[in-house]
Model the fold of this input.
Amino acid sequence: MSWMSGRHRNVIQVMVGLLLAGELALASAIAGSPAAMPRGPLTIAVVGDQNTAGVKNRVVWPTLMAARTGWSVSNFAQPEAGFAADGTGGQAFTYQVDRAQANRPQLILLVTGTADASVPEMEAVTVGAVDAINKIIRGGKQVAVVGPMWYETPVPDSVWRVNQAVRRAADEAVVPFFDALDPPLLTKNLMHSDLSGPSDEGQFIIADKIAAWLTQVVR
Done:
């Protein structure tokens, strides 16, 4: 009888050991499963003008932002482009968005240009901003908007009008908007001597500020 009891105890101990081993193996498998792995780096396509494309720069802020954050950043900016302004043709933001969408990013960042300040009617800028934002949303991508950048105070009324028109379009679409005029993102000492665009130091400042903002607003 005692022999049978001892044998019964041994069987129970073996079963408990196997059960514990199975639970540990399951926990280990769950911890190492793909669902527990962190999400990959953010992929961004940037739409913009010469401040983003670069003018006599060794580096531009989208490239610097990618290097500092580990994000994958593609730069589609063209000089003198805007929501209404078209540069030399086919460069307006609506065309840049088309090219950006073909790259299949998670987020398209619209960085407002200063060429739109020369457009006589702000309605054209508003229509262009609404079109670009809605095109991105319909494509199933996230969108964030940066207002125009300027380097001196007071900011010209024409630039303020562009800022207000684009902010209004972003607010109505309920997408994040970064005001680069208040407080000012750039100053005169962060520009090239001929004021043609941000210097390399200015590009570093833009990269840091926009990256910090995106970490707060991107889902």
